[in-house]
Fold Antibiotic biosynthesis monooxygenase.
Amino acid sequence: MAQQKSVTLVISHLLDPQHSQRYEEWLGKIMPIAAEFPGHLGANVIRPAAGQNLWSVIIRFDTLEHLYAWTQSETRRQLVAEIAPLLTEGDRTEVRTEPAFWFTPPTVNVRQPRRWKQFLITLLVISPAPTWCLR
């Protein structure tokens, strides 16, 4: 069986934009602590796009065991509890074991077209053009 090269932890935090500065300070505190854990290979923070408030943190570890040691540690639990009041949807995590994957942050606050517009476009696409239009 082939040895895995690395595993990735994708963390999503949704928070009120007024708490961004405090959240960045918290990231400055937690990231160096995570880096001290065995097997830590690096981390990236993806700040929210303009008008959005979803922060994504991607952390890589050499093995699944080392990743779980970090995610299940009392240190991480305490640090997440410290910032939990600012998170509108809690601490959402996802473990990715494949060596490469596309990371696409979920879209937030995307406006959907009105139903009548969807209906009209669908009708125009599937209906034949009236004969008076073709003359």
